[in-house]
Protein backbone atom coordinates (compact mmCIF):
# COMPACT_ATOMS: atom_id res chain seq x y z
CA UNK A 1 0.00 0.00 0.00
CA UNK A 2 1.27 3.47 -0.89
CA UNK A 3 2.99 5.50 1.81
CA UNK A 4 0.50 7.32 4.05
CA UNK A 5 -2.52 5.82 2.27
CA UNK A 6 -3.44 4.00 5.47
CA UNK A 7 -3.30 7.29 7.39
CA UNK A 8 -5.46 8.96 4.76
CA UNK A 9 -8.10 6.25 4.83
CA UNK A 10 -8.14 6.26 8.64
CA UNK A 11 -8.54 10.05 8.71
CA UNK A 12 -11.41 9.81 6.23
CA UNK A 13 -13.22 7.21 8.34
CA UNK A 14 -12.70 9.18 11.55
CA UNK A 15 -13.91 12.40 9.91
CA UNK A 16 -17.09 10.73 8.67
CA UNK A 17 -17.88 9.40 12.13
CA UNK A 18 -17.14 12.79 13.67
CA UNK A 19 -19.50 14.38 11.15
CA UNK A 20 -22.30 12.08 12.28
CA UNK A 21 -21.64 13.27 15.82
CA UNK A 22 -22.02 16.87 14.61
CA UNK A 23 -25.43 16.15 13.11
CA UNK A 24 -26.51 14.21 16.20
CA UNK A 25 -25.53 17.17 18.37
CA UNK A 26 -27.56 19.58 16.25
CA UNK A 27 -30.60 17.33 16.53
CA UNK A 28 -30.43 16.62 20.25
CA UNK A 29 -29.09 19.91 21.61
CA UNK A 30 -25.89 21.14 23.23
CA UNK A 31 -24.45 23.85 25.47
CA UNK A 32 -22.50 26.83 24.16
CA UNK A 33 -19.62 28.36 26.11
CA UNK A 34 -17.62 31.54 25.54
CA UNK A 35 -13.98 30.99 24.59
CA UNK A 36 -11.72 34.03 24.61
CA UNK A 37 -13.06 37.46 23.77
CA UNK A 38 -15.20 36.63 20.76
CA UNK A 39 -15.16 32.89 20.12
CA UNK A 40 -17.43 30.09 21.29
CA UNK A 41 -17.13 26.37 21.89
CA UNK A 42 -19.86 23.77 22.27
CA UNK A 43 -20.05 20.52 24.18
CA UNK A 44 -20.09 18.81 20.79
CA UNK A 45 -16.70 20.31 19.85
CA UNK A 46 -15.18 18.82 22.97
CA UNK A 47 -16.89 15.46 22.56
CA UNK A 48 -15.75 15.15 18.96
CA UNK A 49 -12.18 16.17 19.72
CA UNK A 50 -11.98 13.55 22.48
CA UNK A 51 -13.29 10.98 20.01
CA UNK A 52 -10.79 11.92 17.30
CA UNK A 53 -7.87 11.97 19.74
CA UNK A 54 -8.89 8.56 21.09
CA UNK A 55 -9.08 7.08 17.60
CA UNK A 56 -5.72 8.49 16.53
CA UNK A 57 -4.03 7.37 19.75
CA UNK A 58 -5.25 3.83 19.15
CA UNK A 59 -4.22 3.75 15.50
CA UNK A 60 -0.99 5.76 15.67
CA UNK A 61 0.21 5.71 19.30
CA UNK A 62 3.61 7.26 18.54
CA UNK A 63 2.24 10.37 16.82
CA UNK A 64 1.77 13.79 18.40
CA UNK A 65 -1.69 15.38 18.28
CA UNK A 66 -2.50 19.09 18.26
CA UNK A 67 -6.17 19.98 18.63
CA UNK A 68 -8.14 23.19 18.97
CA UNK A 69 -9.88 22.48 22.27
CA UNK A 70 -7.43 20.40 24.30
CA UNK A 71 -4.14 21.46 22.79
CA UNK A 72 -1.16 19.14 22.73
CA UNK A 73 2.51 19.45 21.99
CA UNK A 74 2.99 22.36 19.61
CA UNK A 75 6.66 21.82 18.78
CA UNK A 76 7.25 22.26 15.06
CA UNK A 77 9.54 19.27 14.82
CA UNK A 78 10.27 16.88 12.01
CA UNK A 79 8.16 14.22 13.74
CA UNK A 80 4.65 13.25 12.74
CA UNK A 81 1.84 15.23 14.28
CA UNK A 82 -1.88 15.43 13.65
CA UNK A 83 -3.78 18.73 13.46
CA UNK A 84 -7.45 18.39 14.30
CA UNK A 85 -10.36 20.81 14.34
CA UNK A 86 -13.46 18.97 15.56
CA UNK A 87 -15.83 21.64 14.24
CA UNK A 88 -14.38 24.35 12.05
CA UNK A 89 -17.08 27.00 11.98
CA UNK A 90 -18.38 26.54 15.52
CA UNK A 91 -20.27 29.84 15.55
CA UNK A 92 -22.14 28.78 12.41
CA UNK A 93 -22.80 25.40 14.02
CA UNK A 94 -24.16 26.95 17.21
CA UNK A 95 -26.57 29.13 15.20
CA UNK A 96 -27.75 26.32 12.95
CA UNK A 97 -26.02 27.71 9.86
CA UNK A 98 -24.95 24.65 7.82
CA UNK A 99 -21.42 25.85 7.08
CA UNK A 100 -19.04 23.93 9.32
CA UNK A 101 -16.94 20.81 9.00
CA UNK A 102 -14.45 18.38 10.51
CA UNK A 103 -10.78 18.94 9.61
CA UNK A 104 -7.96 16.43 10.14
CA UNK A 105 -4.38 16.73 8.85
CA UNK A 106 -1.15 14.81 9.31
CA UNK A 107 2.09 16.78 9.12
CA UNK A 108 5.51 15.24 8.57
CA UNK A 109 8.78 17.02 7.88
CA UNK A 110 7.16 20.41 8.44
CA UNK A 111 4.41 20.04 5.82
CA UNK A 112 0.92 18.58 5.67
CA UNK A 113 1.08 15.16 4.04
CA UNK A 114 -2.54 14.09 4.52
CA UNK A 115 -5.56 16.38 4.65
CA UNK A 116 -9.22 15.47 5.11
CA UNK A 117 -12.23 17.79 5.45
CA UNK A 118 -15.73 16.40 5.88
CA UNK A 119 -18.92 18.45 5.50
CA UNK A 120 -21.68 16.35 7.09
CA UNK A 121 -24.48 18.65 5.96
CA UNK A 122 -23.78 17.89 2.30
CA UNK A 123 -22.05 14.55 2.90
CA UNK A 124 -18.97 15.82 1.04
CA UNK A 125 -15.54 14.36 1.74
CA UNK A 126 -12.55 16.40 0.56
CA UNK A 127 -9.31 14.41 0.77
CA UNK A 128 -5.68 14.73 -0.31
CA UNK A 129 -2.34 13.01 0.09
CA UNK A 130 0.83 14.82 -0.90
CA UNK A 131 1.89 13.82 -4.39
CA UNK A 132 -1.32 11.87 -5.02
CA UNK A 133 -3.78 14.63 -5.89
CA UNK A 134 -7.01 15.78 -4.25
CA UNK A 135 -10.48 14.28 -4.44
CA UNK A 136 -14.07 15.17 -3.65
CA UNK A 137 -16.06 12.05 -2.82
CA UNK A 138 -13.44 9.98 -4.59
CA UNK A 139 -13.39 11.99 -7.82
CA UNK A 140 -10.44 14.13 -8.90
CA UNK A 141 -10.74 17.73 -7.76
CA UNK A 142 -9.14 20.73 -9.49
CA UNK A 143 -8.98 24.46 -8.84
CA UNK A 144 -10.84 26.89 -11.10
CA UNK A 145 -9.42 28.04 -14.46
CA UNK A 146 -10.15 31.75 -13.87
CA UNK A 147 -7.22 33.70 -15.30
CA UNK A 148 -7.88 37.22 -14.04
CA UNK A 149 -8.79 38.82 -10.75
CA UNK A 150 -11.60 40.73 -12.47
CA UNK A 151 -13.42 37.42 -13.09
CA UNK A 152 -12.65 35.89 -9.69
CA UNK A 153 -14.81 35.27 -6.63
CA UNK A 154 -12.81 35.32 -3.40
CA UNK A 155 -13.50 34.34 0.19
CA UNK A 156 -12.00 35.60 3.45
CA UNK A 157 -12.56 35.72 7.20
CA UNK A 158 -12.11 38.08 10.11
CA UNK A 159 -10.76 37.79 13.64
CA UNK A 160 -12.57 40.41 15.78
CA UNK A 161 -10.31 39.75 18.78
CA UNK A 162 -7.24 41.03 16.93
CA UNK A 163 -7.97 44.70 16.09
CA UNK A 164 -4.93 45.40 13.85
CA UNK A 165 -5.65 42.35 11.70
CA UNK A 166 -9.35 43.19 11.63
CA UNK A 167 -8.74 46.76 10.48
CA UNK A 168 -6.21 45.71 7.86
CA UNK A 169 -8.44 42.97 6.51
CA UNK A 170 -11.48 45.24 6.29
CA UNK A 171 -9.36 47.47 4.06
CA UNK A 172 -8.33 44.41 2.06
CA UNK A 173 -11.97 43.36 1.77
CA UNK A 174 -12.88 46.69 0.21
CA UNK A 175 -9.89 46.67 -2.13
CA UNK A 176 -10.47 43.12 -3.37
CA UNK A 177 -14.22 43.69 -3.75
CA UNK A 178 -13.51 46.60 -6.09
CA UNK A 179 -11.18 44.47 -8.23
CA UNK A 180 -13.11 41.19 -8.37
CA UNK A 181 -16.57 39.76 -8.99
CA UNK A 182 -17.09 39.65 -5.24
CA UNK A 183 -15.87 38.48 -1.84
CA UNK A 184 -17.68 36.00 0.40
CA UNK A 185 -17.41 35.35 4.14
CA UNK A 186 -18.49 31.78 5.00
CA UNK A 187 -17.25 31.51 8.59
CA UNK A 188 -15.15 28.35 8.17
CA UNK A 189 -11.56 28.61 6.97
CA UNK A 190 -11.39 24.87 6.33
CA UNK A 191 -14.42 25.01 4.03
CA UNK A 192 -13.04 28.15 2.38
CA UNK A 193 -9.92 26.22 1.42
CA UNK A 194 -11.86 23.13 0.37
CA UNK A 195 -13.99 25.30 -1.91
CA UNK A 196 -10.90 26.85 -3.51
CA UNK A 197 -9.57 23.33 -4.12
CA UNK A 198 -12.90 22.29 -5.66
CA UNK A 199 -13.05 25.33 -7.95
CA UNK A 200 -16.06 26.81 -6.15
CA UNK A 201 -14.00 29.82 -5.08
CA UNK A 202 -10.99 31.24 -6.89
CA UNK A 203 -8.99 32.36 -3.88
CA UNK A 204 -8.91 32.76 -0.10
CA UNK A 205 -6.91 34.89 2.30
CA UNK A 206 -7.00 35.44 6.05
CA UNK A 207 -4.87 36.52 9.01
CA UNK A 208 -4.38 35.06 12.49
CA UNK A 209 -5.43 31.48 11.83
CA UNK A 210 -4.18 28.44 13.73
CA UNK A 211 -2.53 25.37 12.19
CA UNK A 212 -5.59 23.20 12.83
CA UNK A 213 -7.71 25.68 10.84
CA UNK A 214 -5.68 25.28 7.65
CA UNK A 215 -3.58 22.12 7.98
CA UNK A 216 -5.89 19.98 5.85
CA UNK A 217 -7.24 22.69 3.56
CA UNK A 218 -3.98 24.11 2.29
CA UNK A 219 -2.86 20.65 1.17
CA UNK A 220 -6.16 20.20 -0.69
CA UNK A 221 -5.50 23.41 -2.62
CA UNK A 222 -1.91 22.47 -3.49
CA UNK A 223 -2.85 18.97 -4.61
CA UNK A 224 -5.75 20.34 -6.68
CA UNK A 225 -3.32 22.48 -8.68
CA UNK A 226 -3.48 25.68 -6.67
CA UNK A 227 -0.87 27.78 -4.93
CA UNK A 228 -0.55 28.56 -1.22
CA UNK A 229 1.76 31.10 0.44
CA UNK A 230 1.57 33.68 3.16
CA UNK A 231 0.49 37.21 2.22
CA UNK A 232 4.13 38.18 1.58
CA UNK A 233 4.57 35.26 -0.86
CA UNK A 234 6.60 33.27 1.66
CA UNK A 235 6.27 29.51 2.22
CA UNK A 236 3.18 28.31 4.07
CA UNK A 237 3.18 25.33 6.45
CA UNK A 238 0.20 26.13 8.68
CA UNK A 239 2.03 28.07 11.37
CA UNK A 240 2.40 31.41 9.56
CA UNK A 241 0.48 34.57 10.54
CA UNK A 242 -1.35 34.83 7.21
CA UNK A 243 -2.45 32.62 4.34
CA UNK A 244 -3.21 33.19 0.67
CA UNK A 245 -4.56 30.23 -1.30
CA UNK A 246 -5.63 30.57 -4.93
CA UNK A 247 -6.05 28.77 -8.23
CA UNK A 248 -2.45 29.92 -8.93
CA UNK A 249 -3.37 32.12 -11.89
CA UNK A 250 -4.57 35.09 -9.82
CA UNK A 251 -2.03 34.62 -7.03
CA UNK A 252 0.49 37.29 -7.98
CA UNK A 253 -2.21 39.89 -8.58
CA UNK A 254 -3.70 39.21 -5.16
CA UNK A 255 -0.31 39.46 -3.45
CA UNK A 256 0.24 42.83 -5.08
CA UNK A 257 -3.22 44.04 -4.06
CA UNK A 258 -3.04 42.77 -0.47
CA UNK A 259 0.44 44.22 -0.01
CA UNK A 260 -0.54 47.70 -1.19
Describe the structure in your own words.
Its cofactor is Mg(2+). InterPro entries: IMPase, Inositol_monoP_metal-BS, Inositol_monophosphatase-like, Inositol_monophosphatase_SuhB. This protein has about 260 residues and is α+β, with helices and mostly antiparallel strands. About 35% of the residues lie in helices and about 25% in strands. It is built from eight helices and 14 strands. The protein has helices at about 5-30, 45-60, 90-95, 165-180, 190-195, 210-215, 215-225, 250-260; strands spanning about 30-35, 40, 65, 80-90, 100-110, 110-120, 125-130, 135, 140, 155, 180-185, 205, 225-230, 240-245. Strands 3-4-5-6-7-8-9 form a seven-stranded mixed beta sheet, sandwiched between helices. The protein has a five-stranded mixed beta sheet with strand order 11-10-12-14-13, sandwiched between helices. A two-stranded antiparallel ribbon has the order 1-2. Strand 7 and strand 8 form a beta hairpin. Helix 1 (about 5-30) runs antiparallel to helix 2 and helix 5 runs parallel beside helix 7 (about 215-225). The model is unreliable at about 75 (pLDDT under 50).
